[in-house]
Design goal:
about 10% strand, Aspartate Aminotransferase, domain 1, alpha/beta, homodimer, Aspartate Aminotransferase, domain 2, 2 domains, three-stranded antiparallel β-sheet
Amino acid sequence: MISQRMYELGSKKSTIREIFEYAKQRAAIVGSENIFDFSIGNPSVPPPDCVNDSIREILATEDSTQTHGYTTAHGDPIARAAVAQFVNQKFGTDYTADHFYITVGAAASIRICLAALTNPGDEYIIFAPFFPEYAVWVEDAGAKLNVVPADTDSFQIDFAALKQQINAHTKGIIVNSPNNPSGAVYSLDTIKQLAQILKEASQEYGHPIFLIADEPYREIVYDGIQVPHLPLYYPNTLICYSYSKALSLPGERIGYILVPPSVLRFADVYAAICGGGRVLGYVNAPSLFQKVIARCGDQTSDISVYKKNRDLLYDGLTKMGYTCVKPGGTFYLFPRCLEADAVYFCKKAQQYDLLLVPGDDFACPGHFRIAYCVPTERIERALPVFARLAKDYGL
Amino acid sequence: MISQRMYELGSKKSTIREIFEYAKQRAAIVGSENIFDFSIGNPSVPPPDCVNDSIREILATEDSTQTHGYTTAHGDPIARAAVAQFVNQKFGTDYTADHFYITVGAAASIRICLAALTNPGDEYIIFAPFFPEYAVWVEDAGAKLNVVPADTDSFQIDFAALKQQINAHTKGIIVNSPNNPSGAVYSLDTIKQLAQILKEASQEYGHPIFLIADEPYREIVYDGIQVPHLPLYYPNTLICYSYSKALSLPGERIGYILVPPSVLRFADVYAAICGGGRVLGYVNAPSLFQKVIARCGDQTSDISVYKKNRDLLYDGLTKMGYTCVKPGGTFYLFPRCLEADAVYFCKKAQQYDLLLVPGDDFACPGHFRIAYCVPTERIERALPVFARLAKDYGL
């Protein structure tokens, strides 16, 4: 009567959703201040003042019918031009408005790219650990997903494993650096090696293998790290961006797809992206927020809070004996569990009111994710609890 | 290398888009005040003050991280409760928040419903004339679309033709009343007959045939017409609503799906809709505008302008000898062309700088659409031009 697959996708609760509901119940008993909920990647700092100031100014000065009216499907030309300028400033590129397609957030960006590129029989490759919705979107686009196991020593790329996965059906590779959940940022060396392998494979199989780069955390990096701009290293790259994380606008659903002019048959690819947006029912990205990003898209919320949280947690946990690859960005830490079974470990942590997500959810067992986009004082109070958990395991 | 179908959908310009671009070029020559552009269904009156006032108030009083933060995927509970209350007030129903799924506009609503319901081999039925994107969405959901030819005498339903189209594969019927492009509103008699046929066919084939009702124009009706609430007549109805037209918020992409409790296996259908939203990449509807509709969803922009425009145009054109079913709602008029070929007729009208859309675009040749969501004075100035066109045809 209905689609069984949609029923299952809509009714099966994700682990994160289950934790979220447990947290609410538990908070009612012990008080929300005593729950250490590290499960959700929801920015904890407000957007910069520019956002609300811009909204007020737009409402005060612009024609209301226009402000809330349709834009062209690929985005208001002024917003696209502004975004191009911001990207050019950051990366020294020379993009124009014509290289951008404004979207209803990064999820839409990725889903649209998959629709635009996929033909029956196509396959995509992704590196563990990864955000589980990628698998849902790839499957829904009618393609097969192949997973390259994590290189848990560095959360860079296991290139030997990658080479085994590439074949004649490979349409694209999805990368997410800075990475959710590991926080790892791909090094320049990693990117150059990846580009080389993809160039060779594209040549071998006689068609481009696209790099789909999901970059919502691009601005949330520490210690002077700069996220390299992938199209400068690999021409057939599509950048999927979102203002959800760095600008703290996750609910407003605003982002873009950058189709660099280096992409083979650029005009055709851009047109296919327009077609993808159309079939999925995306008429245009929210119009008021297109105007907002045209004004504030080069700003970020106060990211120093996340840096402080990372340092506190990373230093604290490693001193206790936890092992963890130091993350260069995002607001996630992805340490090794203190026992083999991450699900069991997270259940045990839950007894201490530490709410963590097992790495199994990100195709990387044996680890757990801490989303440290929370008030710093919560981390300060959580550290002794992590210590008690470690002590239980004999550390 | 890419999806040929997406390329074609993204690169082929729609007739309306072509007219839009012609209008810009022509305006540069003769001045925009001398172009009578009746091609686009973009509301011409601003949203009610409630919209911008609410935005200012939300920014002034609520926590900014929260305001722009994720909501649950099916929508903020407060927004869903408010929408339920507004619908209950209007139709005397007793819906709750749990019956609503807030979406990124009506296009998203329809596309999600199709994803939720469709299994391989399914078919949908639609009545001409219809908005052409329905065909794109049905095809993309993997189903076949069957078109019931228009009853051009009334733009109600040709039930004999409908009965011929229903078969064991029919999963649903898409209706759009008030209708784009005809402006027709289904009478209670039409709805009762339709419900009866669908009940009988559901029984005959042993599965429910869903009624998917696209109702963005529900509030834009004249002469005391009330759009009947379909679930009161047919239990397996899904209502797809949008605040684009009556609240003049087309660019903000905000609407909902109403899944009435009368729907067979309600919980499963609602879950499948959640799954549909998920696979298509709709994370949540824009959060600020969820709050706006919670405050303003029972209001409309000043619809009296459209009424005035309809009367002026309908009375004017019929006096000149044009024939037209008098529309009960929307901001469209759909008269018969003065020659058989609507495309040619619209080309001829274009020579007078009257920009009209041929009915062929809505699967209803021999007619043309006038979108009268324009300033009234433009209609006043256009009437003599329509008269000259009529004179050319010997009227």
